[in-house]
Design goal:
13% strand; five-stranded mixed sheet; two-stranded antiparallel ribbon; 7 strands; 8 helices; Fumarate Reductase Iron-sulfur Protein, Chain B, domain 2; alpha+beta; binds FE2/S2 (inorganic) cluster; 34% helix; 2 domains; Ubiquitin-like (UB roll)
């Protein structure tokens, strides 16, 4: 099935050449977009001819253009998740030519620009593929399994209204930097989609790591480590050190955090058991 008549945003003739006279360069793309009506429905690719795509638009803006054309052709628009469109919220991830978030390193789907592609390119767009991320519709997946991990321990307990000002607690610079690097995780799920085991170690390690190294995270450190890792294991596959997760991560979360997770989990098993036996 083909959609798109070339009269949406962008005015190019599909040859992709920059004219240098004030006209915006455009691309003609061949898109293969995954369409799936629901989690239990069979899916299939929709082939879309997409001329006149401005080079300077983002990947999501390109999908907006495609959707406007589909609507004009009385075809249901493609469902995809997005919110901030600034690489912050983590909702926008899709597989682009087999890679989570596409070809650019350290770049979320919403930050990817069409100038990274060439005129005539075929682009295959699919949802993140993982059993724990069932397809909601088309390119949108359900990532609530991540929420279950956070709910199990990805927080600190401080009664509302009585929490001390965080600036009153000194934190060494190297510890603060380590925590901030972990906190850069936007929870997009690219790590899971890239992993051959669909493991969520990098996500969990980032969420665990930024709390477990800070003073505010110490009272619940060992309970948190055990709970988050075991919740993770109930939803996701196991890490076998492929390292694909960090390669796909738009925030370049380091594998070092997985080492911290493994260390804290082993310590937590011992400490929590000892505490239980003393209770
Ligand atoms: S839409 Fe928020 S990170 Fe892409």
């Amino acid at each position: 099935m083909s959609a798109g008549n070339g009269n949406g945003a962008g005015s190019g003739n599909g040859n992709g050449a920059g004219s240098g006279n004030g006209h915006q360069a455009t691309l003609r793309l061949r898109l293969r977009i995954w369409r799936q009506a629901g989690p239990d429905e069979p899916g299939a690719f929709l082939d879309v001819d997409a001329p006149g795509i401005p080079e300077d638009c983002s990947f999501l803006e390109m999908l907006d253009i495609v959707n406007e054309r589909l609507i004009e052709d009385d075809v249901e628009p493609v469902v995809f998740a997005h919110d901030c469109r600034e690489g912050i919220c983590g909702t926008c991830g899709v597989m682009i030519n087999g890679r989570p978030h596409g070809p650019e390193k350290a770049t979320a789907t919403c930050q990817l620009h069409m100038r990274k592609f060439r005129d005539g390119d075929e682009i295959v767009i699919e949802p993140f593929r993982a059993a724990s991320f069932p397809v909601v519709k088309d390119l949108m997946v359900d990532r609530r399994a991540f929420d279950r991990i956070i709910e199990s321990g990805g927080f600190i307990s401080a009664p509302t209204g009585t929490a001390p000002d965080a600036n009153e607690i000194p934190v060494p610079k190297d510890v603060a930097d380590f925590a901030m690097d972990a906190a850069a995780c936007i929870g997009c799920g690219a790590c899971v989609a890239a992993c051959p085991n669909s493991a969520a170690q990098l996500f969990t390690a980032a969420k665990l790591g930024h709390l477990n190294v800070l003073p505010q995270g110490q009272p619940e450190r060992w309970r948190r480590a055990e709970a988050m890792v075991e919740t993770m294991e109930s939803f996701f596959g196991s890490c076998t050190n492929h390292g694909e997760c960090t390669e796909a991560c738009p925030k370049e979360i380091s594998l070092d955090f997985i080492a911290v997770l493994n260390r804290d989990y082993l310590k937590a098993k011992v400490k929590n058991r000892r505490l239980a036996s003393q209770a």
